[in-house]
């Protein structure tokens, strides 16, 4: 068995201690996934809904209801499904939630 002097043992102890600290450090995780951050640019609601509003027949085929019926239903549900924005993330609008639910 090799014999080490005090200086070598001290250096080995410091190195092992640093490695142990690095192993126990926790990685920071993000609360919002990357795909959800891009939802405002590439999401179905933001890319499709405006086009559907311009064409009543396409709107009816997509939702199986008229725009008037959609907005009446939205007005009845709006206060129940609306959330507030926080510092961590932007809330999904009631209109977007209704669109996802109906589809």
TrEMBL record:
Stored Pfam families: ArAE_1_C (PF11728)
Domain Putative aromatic acid exporter C-terminal: 6-74
Lineage top rank: taxon: Eukaryota
InterPro entries: ArAE_1_C
Protein name: Putative aromatic acid exporter C-terminal domain-containing protein
Organism phylogeny: Eukaryota, Metazoa, Ecdysozoa, Arthropoda, Hexapoda
């Amino acid at each position: 068995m090799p014999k080490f002097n005090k200086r070598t043992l001290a250096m080995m102890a410091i190195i092992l201690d640093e490695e142990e600290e690095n192993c126990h450090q926790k990685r920071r995780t993000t609360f919002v996934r990357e795909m959800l951050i891009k939802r405002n640019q590439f999401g179905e609601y933001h890319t499709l809904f405006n086009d559907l509003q311009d064409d009543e027949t396409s709107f009816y085929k997509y939702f199986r209801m008229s725009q008037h019926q959609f907005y009446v239903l939205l007005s009845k549900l709006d206060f129940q499904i609306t959330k507030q924005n926080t510092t961590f993330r932007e809330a999904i609008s009631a209109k977007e939630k209704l669109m996802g639910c109906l589809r």
